[in-house]
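User:
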Amino acid sequence: MACTPGDILYGTYRILDLLGKGGNGTVYLARHERSGRLWAVKEIAKEKNHLIMEAELLKKLKHPGLPAVGDILEQGGMLYLVMDYIEGKSLRQLLEEEKTFSQEQVVRWGLELCRVLEYLHTRTPSVIYRDMKPSNVMRKEDGSLVLVDFGTAREQKEEAAEDTVWLGTRGYAAPEQYGGHGQTGPEADVYGLGAVLYHLLTGRSPADPPYGFMPVRAFRPELSGGLERVLLCCTRDNPKERYHSCRELAWALEHYQELDESFIRQRRRKRRLFVICLAVTAAAFAGSGIMASLERQAIAGTYQAQIAEAAGAVHREERLEACRKAIRLEPGLAEGYRCMMEIFLEDGTFSAEEEILLREILNERQEGGKRFLERLQTNEAEYQRAAYEIGQAYFYDYEGTDGKRASARWLLAAAKAKEGSVLSEREIFRAEILGKIAGYYDGLDIQKRNGDSEASYEEYWRDLRQLCGLEIEKGDNRITALLADRELTAGLSLKAEQFRAAGVDADSMTDALLLVQRRLEAWEGEPDRSAYETQLKQEVKDGLLTARRAIDAAFLDL
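Assistant: Predicted structure:
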């Protein structure tokens, strides 16, 4: 039964006015009878279960960018959610008044909303808002923003294949919110926020015809090309092509000017000017290093712009070229190489063609100087960071036959890192174990004159077991654990007889497989996070069957 002004809920809250009415309930302005404080009261029909969940959800959340819940009441067959009353105007009201806003203002608001959404996404379980639009963002009188109306928000459930209810506002809702694409994740809120920022900049609602998102400079040519790229990345149809978190989006918003074509050209001009000045004044500044320092600053700015370009570009070729340009600017830094390896491994394979490209870059020289690999090696910490990424790619993902052998030198170089410098203790440990295992692929095939191999199968088994043990699994992501399990099952499938000859008993081998089996069983029912994860799981399952047969065959005479 709807409330009217003058009604008193639960003998405590006097209804003063109607604030709004929609599909997610009716909201009233109310005053606490004893304290005089104003509250917003949302009336919810008890049969609307997904709206009742809003009340339960908001009770768990505490953030300055979210309304606090004061009370949950039941009266006359209805539920009433008592929340902070936000005095101010919604962004929709401000748009009706101002039409558009400066890019500086829009970026400030975008960063503020990124912080609120990132808070939601990092809860346990994650909370996905799913209804970002101008009318759901309030600007308080002090200028800060508050995200309201959690009627469509949901907690991510590990056991769920996709959202139970498909909700959202046309134009602002990501395509995956309409079903058939699995559970919505943080990328859905990235899309919604990008749509809101687009509306604030252009004055054009994506919910009105013509639908969709044109480049913002088609309406306002004076806007930043870098900011245009950021918004285009936010609103791509494929969630995998958007920023994967609001933390990533916030970084892009903070550095959008570095993606401007004019900014990059200006940096290049500055670099050339520094080089000219350096040549002209070399004698005057001999030994001072002043000009060299200034040039390094200019190069570093362009370097980060190229890294950002690699993250934001649409086409793979453009992203790889941006990585290559970054490496050419600073061949002694790891980030460009890491960026390139990430692009290589997006399909789960490090191909022979990609390896050729990597080798070309590592062997490249600048004006007859040292090779890029040598430049990288002179910076020990950066070399160890890059070596870790390249070594793992060779070990786990190289499509050729010699990936393990090629990985050894990279991984052993990474294992020399000091704890807490550029690699964590866990990463150093993994590099050391993987490097040893990679070395066995050579050593076990090299026979000494007395017939013994250069490497010990007993040691090989010990290191394989360590790689897949509980200690290294703890805190690792699922892909890493699956890769380690695949390595164990492959090793047993191929070398069970040799392990037995080295003194490894059947129980030890079987126990290792049980550990892998339990890990797979623990993940049953949980949605796979990528096609690559699905592929790895199947490979490990197949490997378990082959490894069990190999163990049975090795101990057949017992």
